[in-house]
Design brief:
The complex is a heterodimer of chains A (169) and B (173). Chain A is of the alpha+beta class. Helices cover 31% and strands 36% of the residues of chain A. In chain A, a hairpin with a 5-residue loop joins strand 5 and strand 6. The chains are: A alpha+beta (169), B alpha+beta (173). Strand 2 of chain A pairs antiparallel with strand 6 of chain B.
Chain lengths: 169, 173
């Protein structure tokens, strides 16, 4: 996480806390994102059966995202340490697979609004079957920063270049 | 204008700084990472490929090896720097080891650094070999472990196992 991410986080916290209370559940997050300044909804289809997408979410989500990350940045005038804990949650039912990603700053970032259990919602990905071989993805995600995380979740959906995102970026 | 180069105060300050540096170096040696002895028969074959994707940043990969006690407590045994494309490591069979693959990135221009890890428990089986692919590219990393018998190319993928699995298996006893 660099200063750009911190600024983006600050903006999103500011905007969301100033206008509405910060989303406390994944459903609240889905509703808040379309109107948020620093978040957007992205919808696309992948040529992959729903069961495979759900399985990849179940495997990669906990393996890659249940992490505590420490980053340090230093200038002539400052030294900053940010410790962030990410919490993935995967919920799979017969017709839908959900991946929720929350982040909680243990150190280095000041929270200005009420934080849900597990941290602020950062991203929600919903996968639903379209046909036997196609799956629709609704991605509720930040529009500033966190590009590596977003790309990783897209890769998990498409099945291409599957890996874990370097959450320090 | 005729001024001596070092006053007693300056010498005192310099001595203090030297002492401070020596103490810091000593402490770093005591509490920092240590090299894994790697004296056992080699059963882990680590294939590493890292690319930070930028001239202005660098990624280093390493693996920390911990002994797992009967109470699932970790005892740090040392670190192997994965600086070469292929490195062979020996871990004891029959007992649990805890492997922590560390990707440390640093950006020269932004003066920023961070580390991300991939951890797994592994109980090496005697006579088996473990091919481990460690990859970092485009800000994505992957660690894949495949268990094989000697002289066999096929094998089975080993899924990562959390430390809590040790605790739960110990609790069942």
């Amino acid at each position: 996480m660099n200063r750009y991410h911190v600024f983006a986080m600050f903006l999103s916290v500011l905007v969301l806390s100033g206008c509405i209370s910060h989303p406390q559940t994944a459903e609240e997050f889905r509703k808040a994102v379309p109107a948020a300044f620093s978040a957007k909804v992205e919808t696309f289809e992948v040529n992959r059966p729903f069961s495979q997408v759900a399985s990849t979410f179940q495997k990669m989500g906990p393996n890659c995202l249940a992490k505590t990350i420490k980053t340090t940045s230093q200038t002539n005038m400052s030294y900053q340490v940010i410790v962030t804990t990410y919490k993935p949650t995967v919920v799979v039912t017969g017709k839908k697979a959900e991946l929720h990603v929350q982040q909680h700053h243990e150190q280095g970032v000041l929270n200005v609004s009420k934080e849900p259990d597990g941290g602020y919602y950062l991203l929600v990905a919903d996968a639903q079957p379209v046909t036997q071989t196609k799956t629709r993805i609704d991605l509720y995600r930040p529009s500033i920063g966190h590009g590596v995380l977003i790309q990783a979740v897209k890769n998990w959906a498409t099945g291409e270049n599957i890996g874990c995102p370097d959450l320090t970026k | 204008m005729n001024r001596s180069v070092w006053s007693p105060l300056d010498i005192g300050r310099i001595a203090f700084i030297v002492l401070l540096v020596c103490t810091a170096s000593f402490l770093a040696g005591c509490f920092g990472s240590k090299t894994y002895p790697n004296t056992l028969e080699k059963n882990l074959h680590v294939h590493t490929a890292t690319d930070s994707g930028s001239w202005f940043s660098h990624v280093r990969a390493a693996v920390d090896i911990h002994r797992v006690g009967e109470d699932c407590a970790l005892d740090y045994e040392g670190t192997v720097q994965l600086a070469d494309p292929k490195i062979d490591i020996g871990i004891p069979p029959h007992r649990w080891s805890y492997l922590v693959f560390v990707f440390a990135n640093s950006s020269f221009l932004a003066n920023r650094s961070g580390t991300i890890t991939y951890e797994t428990l592994l109980k090496a089986r005697p006579n088996y070999h473990y091919e481990i692919a460690v990859r970092y590219r485009d800000d994505m990393y992957h660690v894949g472990i495949r268990e094989t018998l000697p002289n066999q190319s096929t094998g089975r993928e080993i899924e990562p196992l959390e430390l809590s699995a040790c605790r739960s298996s110990t609790g069942r006893k």
